[in-house]
Amino acid sequence: MLIKIPNAGDCREHQVTPEEVYLERRRILKGLAASATLAAFPRFSWAEAGRYAEVPVAEAPAWFDDKLLHARWQNLPDDESLTPYRDASHYNNFYEFGPDKGDPARHAARMVTEPWTVTVDGEVEHPGQYSIEDLFVPSQLEERIYRLRCVEAWSMVIPWLGIPLAELIQRLTPTSAAKYVRFETLARPEQMPGMRAGFSLIDWPYVEGLRMDEAMHPLTLLAVGMYGRVLPNQNGAPLRLVVPWKYGFKSIKSIVRISFVREQPQTTWQKMAPEEYGFYANVNPQVSHPRWSQARERRLPGSLFSPNIRETLLFNGYADQVSHLYAGMDLSREY
């Protein structure tokens, strides 16, 4: 007899949302009136339902709307509260649009995201130019509610929509020579004013990478949406990576190239300041940034008099799922 031992983050059978509740929730998320009682939403309160409904309706491509109707939704963990959409979409690092946290929301609307093509190349059996539809239509969208921890010691809780990166990788079929996956962000200075500003000391385009086993891990998500809507430009539309146990700069935005490579890619921040930003960038409260401690974090939203400070968790709280990836490694050296 096969006995399956569930992971710490897996839903149990009693937590599965009944079909009628799921359908009613979708109606709320579309912004329609609802008459169900609070008891009909196990672990999903009217507060969260209302917050989703209040998210601005954004024009989305037809394929996204079609996939949204059949998405797999996740219940909010009992010990977490969602970061308000306004904070998650207006407090961002996306240096292509400027160095200030509000620059992406101010300037990203000018970025054209349709049509969007992703180049797949390197050690892979199915290289080519792929549209977002090509990449996502064969798959079911999933909601993943993840903690996001920035290397600057602030954090959020965000409900993403996407597919496991592993699912796409399996379809693309990398060869045995591929040991890493390299990602590249759009570089379009005429639509990205930060690339033309003083902060453009960055060697564009922005590059990130994962070891193959990290890329194939079930938690690693390729996201096209958040808060039940299509991704806003400032959050990395139309396609971004989400790696929840790593610092946020690893979750590269507005991806235009995915390359399967033999050697560890040199990533943007690692190239600029290797003593501060390592390739792995795993959340680790025991390894401080050279200029500040990583032992604690500021959970947004907060204020001057109520900063919402909390202890940082190893691997951002996902240690049970991912610590085996780094067995035998010195995480103070291979940070």
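The above is record 1. Record 2 follows with the same two-line structure.
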Amino acid sequence: MSNLKLAIILGSTRPGRNGEAVANWVLAKAKERPDAGYELIDLLDYPLPLLDEAVPASRGVYASEHTKAWAAKIKEYDGYIFVTPEYNHSTSAALKNAIDYLYTEWNNKAAAFVSYGSLGGTRAIEHLRAISSELQLAHVRQQLSFSLFTDFENFSQFKPSAVHDSTAPVLFDQLESWAGALKTVRV
């Protein structure tokens, strides 16, 4: 599995976002993993307008250069960790939009979820699980959910509870296992 390539997708583009600190923490933990390579993808680096492709993504016919660049980037990976805030009981519009741009690039790959919010962002993850199933993106059981009340100081400075140090490896183990298995399916 040492040739696994996994992306951590930072799913918030909001000014002053808490997600950047969360995603960097996940990346730091991932860098400790010897059997896979992890890379951070920030949606700010892929400014996708509200879905502007006329042909459904399942056809794989992309007209816009921003879609082609996004598709090429996502296609590189064997699996993903989505880092999402919870906005109004769901994921961010920016992340949902980025996901909706593509279809086959997500198929037969693995996904894990990291969330943050007043209730840990768990409702955002539940929506992402349903979306992932439609995209044939296998999602693992373990998730990381950070509370704005217990894992952030003044709701803005990320200071994760020590319990996450023991649950994060389980998430990585599951993701790498599934990503490796699904890689054989895609071959």
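The CA atoms of residues 18 and 156 lie 6 Å apart.
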